[in-house]
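Thread amino acids onto this structure.
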């Protein structure tokens, strides 16, 4: 069951500093939306516009849309897919211009800002969605989509966490049995057996491994641990899993915390070790690869033996040709357990929806076992319903993929929620360049204390 653990920590102190704001869109949205509260398009429509960003999920939801139309002959769904970055830009522009979709796939860390801006329709106020119950989904998911005002703003569609994807070809050449990855541990002092393994898997351009005499850390042919990145305020596929298994937490409470913990010594020592892997040559430095050549591409091109990635990427890894790969759990940390961020997507209805009752019927249908089983059989994500999650696991097993480590982390209570709070965009704007400065060596890890002051100042200024 999903029951993330929250280790205790001391609240960070704050000082008076100038808050850094991410964009000027908040005030503009509030102004325009108050003028457009009558709804986009003016008249009701039997065509429900639905947006999502994951192209690999679009075919499954098109099947659901066809089933929905069959059950509701007078209604149809038009699906539009955009890439991740374009998606949020177009969605924000849509809210401003009054052209936002009726229904859209929402992200756990994005929706608090939309709630603050009053652009989401409470689902519990519409006939078709007011009966959606938290009991239908994996424990904990439904509650995440309930705002501080008690209203539900999203119907859970899936969940995800992270793990280690490995290149079996490179492991075999190094004499490493993939089963060894199931028993790894790390610590911020010497990296534990995890660092020992990735050192051995690293090879310089002369064929010398990272644990051998004469290793040249400045000229690497294969990295033991690829895809290293600075991360952002949530660091979903970078350092957050390591930090949590070291006893760190994002903020004083989650969801709806109001004091972040980026200054914590636990995080500072984690990042000193994590970014230090690049300095040792075991992982890529900031400019080793282009931004488009991330962990997946590094593993597929035999440039990295192990990368950390999300469960949502399984279908993408299935497209790799000529490289045998597998999935292993995250290493155990100093706390004695593994940790992985728990993400969740949900379907939300905009306040400008042309036909809110029709939109609600579509959202309700997507929450049913009928639709979520369709998504499970597509083998792209783990659906929010427990039975559908198991069906998805079986689908992957039939395709020769063992994805059980993701489900095991959930069932073993080794997951934690991504941060849910106000000012998400502002916090991202503060933390992303700050973390990049630390990663590249322009700033020491103690710079996190300054960043933390800026973040927490947001909650005191508003």
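Threaded sequence (462 positions):
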């Amino acid at each position: 069951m999903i029951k993330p653990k929250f280790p205790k920590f001391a609240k960070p102190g704050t000082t008076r500093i100038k808050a850094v704001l991410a964009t000027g869109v908040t005030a503009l949205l509030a102004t325009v939306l108050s003028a457009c509260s009558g709804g986009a398009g003016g008249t009701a429509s039997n065509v429900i516009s639905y947006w999502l960003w994951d192209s690999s999920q679009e075919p499954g939801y098109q099947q659901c849309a066809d089933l929905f139309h069959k059950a509701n002959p007078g209604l149809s769904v038009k699906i539009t897919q955009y890439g991740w970055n374009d998606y949020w830009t177009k969605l924000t522009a849509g809210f401003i211009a009054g052209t936002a979709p009726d229904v859209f796939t929402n992200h756990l860390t994005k929706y608090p800002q939309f709630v603050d801006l009053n652009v989401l329709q409470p689902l519990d106020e519409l006939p078709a969605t007011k009966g959606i119950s938290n009991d239908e989904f994996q424990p904990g998911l439904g509650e995440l989509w309930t705002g501080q005002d008690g209203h539900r703003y999203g119907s859970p569609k899936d969940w995800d966490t992270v793990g280690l994807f490995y290149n079996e070809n490179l492991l075999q050449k190094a004499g490493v049995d993939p089963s060894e990855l199931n028993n790894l541990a790390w610590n911020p002092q010497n990296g534990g057996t995890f660092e020992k393994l990735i050192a051995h898997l690293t090879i310089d351009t002369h064929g010398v491994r990272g644990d051998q005499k004469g290793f040249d850390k400045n000229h690497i042919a294969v990295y033991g641990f690829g895809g290293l990145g600075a991360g952002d305020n949530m660091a979903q596929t970078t350092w957050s899993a390591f930090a949590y298994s070291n006893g760190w937490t994002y903020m004083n409470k989650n969801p709806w915390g109001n004091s972040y913990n980026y200054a914590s010594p636990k995080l500072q020592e984690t990042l000193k070790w994590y970014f230090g892997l690049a300095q040792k040559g075991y992982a890529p430095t900031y400019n080793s690869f282009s931004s488009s050549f991330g962990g997946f591409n590094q593993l597929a091109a035999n440039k990295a033996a192990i990368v950390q990635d999300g469960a949502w990427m399984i279908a993408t890894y299935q497209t790799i040709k000529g490289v045998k790969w597998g999935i292993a759990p995250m290493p155990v940390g100093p706390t004695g357990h593994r940790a992985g961020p728990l993400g969740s997507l949900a379907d939300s209805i905009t306040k400008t929806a042309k036909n809110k009752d029709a939109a609600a019927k579509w959202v309700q249908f997507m929450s049913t076992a009928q639709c979520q089983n369709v998504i499970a059989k597509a083998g792209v994500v783990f659906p929010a319903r427990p039975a559908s999650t198991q069906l998805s696991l079986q689908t992957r097993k039939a395709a020769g993929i063992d994805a059980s480590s993701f489900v095991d982390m959930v069932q073993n209570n080794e997951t934690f929620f991504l941060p849910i709070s106000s000012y998400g965009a502002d916090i991202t704007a503060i933390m992303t360049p700050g973390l990049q400065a630390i990663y590249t060596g322009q700033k020491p890890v103690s710079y996190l204390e300054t960043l933390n002051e800026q973040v927490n100042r947001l909650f005191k200024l508003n």
